[in-house]
Amino acid sequence: MKWQRKDILAIEDMSVEEIRQILHTAKVMKEILMRPIKKLPTLKGKSVVNLFYEASTRTRTSFEMAGKVLGADTTSIAVAQSSVSKGESLYDTAKTIQAMRADLVILRHPSSGSANFLADILDAGVINAGDGQHEHPTQALLDIFTMEERLGAIEGKNVVIVGDVLHSRVARSNAWGLQKLGVNVTLVGPPTLLPVEMEGLGVKMSHNLDSALLGADVVMALRLQLERQKSGLFPSLREYSHLYGLTTERLKKTGKQSIVLHPGPMNRGVEISDDVADGVDSLIERQVTNGVAIRMALIYLLIGGASNVVA
């Protein structure tokens, strides 16, 4: 199938065929990534700009590495040191990037809808690396890729996502993507962090983690996003950890050898204990590796040439 999209903005409007094509391409890209010499001339002469208005380690670095492995010229704009700090609007920043003839822009921004806004302005492709509380499509894709690597076909599997769902674009993107692939998704969290409107995603919802864990094949802990929260959403970190933190003892309630995921960065001892984060069923480090492979696949599909087909 020839790739048609100019942009990757959301999982919500993506077809199963498109998701499958991305995952297939990422599998090939991971094989390249695992080679001793990780450098291809595929995108020589192409330019990729990373435009991050929010702090990021994994996403920004993996996009940079993905572009470089494929041979593209990558530029990262440090927003704090750019004209944004002087009041330049996203619109004007976008027009400046367009004037520099970039082929692809990776955007992370605190406002929901910002990636769509940028995509409407630019001739270049745009990849959403997280827009406000809306979506984080590349994280969901790497999570799905990681699940399938360990579990094989995931249709009919049970995935529990626990934590700060209210502020989590990762939870939203995973809910959309996993359900498209026939996965049963349960979102778990305290009432103040589990908004009623999430029911519109078609997922199950629960405030009781212990009961929700029964039969779970995958358990994903979400970071408690204290920087986005108002006070009073829960009594204390200690109580939150007691009710919703992942521990070895709690994971036994799944009745299976469930795999553990976390989008990072982790608040160890809050949403996840050290022994779970570093345990044999934790695929958290593999998620990081797979993040590079997924982002290589997306960069390749968007600006990789006429056929956009990897054998």
UniProtKB/TrEMBL annotation:
Q: Which InterPro entries match?
A: Asp/Orn_carbamoyltranf_P-bd, Asp/Orn_carbamoylTrfase, Asp/Orn_carbamoylTrfase_sf, Asp_carbamoyltransf, Asp_carbamoyltransf_Asp/Orn-bd
Alphabetically list the UniProt keywords. Answer: Pyrimidine biosynthesis, Transferase
The UniProt record gives the binding positions of L-aspartate as K86, R169, R223
Q: Which reaction does it catalyse?
A: carbamoyl phosphate + L-aspartate = N-carbamoyl-L-aspartate + phosphate + H(+)
Q: Which GO terms describe its biological process?
A: 'de novo' pyrimidine nucleobase biosynthetic process; 'de novo' UMP biosynthetic process; amino acid metabolic process
Q: Where is the Aspartate/ornithine carbamoyltransferase carbamoyl-P binding domain?
A: 6-149
Q: Where is the Aspartate/ornithine carbamoyltransferase Asp/Orn-binding domain?
A: 155-302
The residues listed in the UniProt record as binding carbamoyl phosphate, with positions renumbered to this chain, are: R58, T59, R108, H136, Q139, G264, P265
Task: Provide an example Pfam family for this protein.
Answer: OTCace
Which residues are listed as membrane-spanning? none
Cellular component per GO, a single term: cytosol
MF annotations from Gene Ontology? amino acid binding; aspartate carbamoyltransferase activity
Question: In which pathway is this protein known to take part?
Answer: Pyrimidine metabolism; UMP biosynthesis via de novo pathway; (S)-dihydroorotate from bicarbonate: step 2/3
Q: What is its EC number?
A: 2.1.3.2
| Family named by the database record | Belongs to the aspartate/ornithine carbamoyltransferase superfamily. ATCase family.
UniProt subunit comment:
Heterododecamer (2C3:3R2) of six catalytic PyrB chains organized as two trimers (C3), and six regulatory PyrI chains organized as three dimers (R2).
Summarize the protein's role: Catalyzes the condensation of carbamoyl phosphate and aspartate to form carbamoyl aspartate and inorganic phosphate, the committed step in the de novo pyrimidine nucleotide biosynthesis pathway.
* Name under which the protein is recorded: Aspartate carbamoyltransferase
Q: Which organism is it from?
A: Desulfosporosinus metallidurans
Upper lineage: Bacteria, Bacillati, Bacillota, Clostridia, Eubacteriales
